[in-house]
């Protein structure tokens, strides 16, 4: 059993992550702005703390006596606060939390990043070098939220250079997280049900149809923590489903919403997603257990199984900047 501290444990992803790790037999400590009444956190130690306060964060994280630290706490929705507030809050918390983890001697530290660091939905246009997108795709953040997540990844790299192998770090980019209750009809983060997102491709297009079940994020984190001492330090991983959150192949859908991707998207055949989880499979031996078809009880269509050519992964206009702002979070 490992004692794991999770910042933002009362948040949307945090609750599922804490519940999954606790169910796997680990001892959890949640750090958030306030003690939560959420069912997933009942019976667990909770610490109320302002993580933007350096001294308070340092004391609280030392008090956890944790073997591992997972940093999720952040302003989680782009444009939900002024840009300077988002950048200052998220970047400060990342530095405070992870520096506090180092000072406390916690040997394993992981931070949540975001696929938005890649810069899709940029109002002046965006094209990747290729699909599927992966950890080699060049980050091009265009808003404060994406920039703050890119800075979190760079904070991991900075601290790894300072500490060498004394502390093992990693960052992960979870795709659009769907919690267990959302398969049953609860609203997703952007205010729609999963079935509504499937029925109207324009709703999932801003996130490039990516998604991941929150329970799969929990298994990813557990797998990562076990592997940290053996893999290169400060690695970054995409964490996503094996398929896209779409009823039609992305080779058809992406060109409708991302101008200029006709040839690039042709690589995404069948049910293949735009984001590859191949690195997590290759390096960690992890792969997701959940798909939207499995959760909704729908069979595969004639599109066939996920298959992106040349990779290990599996309305008729582009979204406007305003619509991108509403759904830019992956």
Automatic annotation (TrEMBL):
<dbReference type="Pfam" id="PF01370">
    <property type="entry name" value="Epimerase"/>
</dbReference>
<feature type="domain" description="NAD-dependent epimerase/dehydratase">
    <location>
        <begin position="4"/>
        <end position="240"/>
    </location>
</feature>
<feature type="region of interest" description="Disordered">
    <location>
        <begin position="294"/>
        <end position="330"/>
    </location>
</feature>
<dbReference type="GO" id="GO:0016491">
    <property type="term" value="F:oxidoreductase activity"/>
</dbReference>
<protein>
    <submittedName>
        <fullName>UDP-glucose 4-epimerase</fullName>
        <ecNumber>5.1.3.2</ecNumber>
    </submittedName>
</protein>
<dbReference type="InterPro" id="IPR001509">
    <property type="entry name" value="Epimerase_deHydtase"/>
</dbReference>
<keyword id="KW-0560">Oxidoreductase</keyword>
<keyword id="KW-0520">NAD</keyword>
<comment type="similarity">
    <text>Belongs to the NAD(P)-dependent epimerase/dehydratase family.</text>
</comment>
<keyword id="KW-0413">Isomerase</keyword>
<dbReference type="GO" id="GO:0003978">
    <property type="term" value="F:UDP-glucose 4-epimerase activity"/>
</dbReference>
<dbReference type="InterPro" id="IPR036291">
    <property type="entry name" value="NAD(P)-bd_dom_sf"/>
</dbReference>
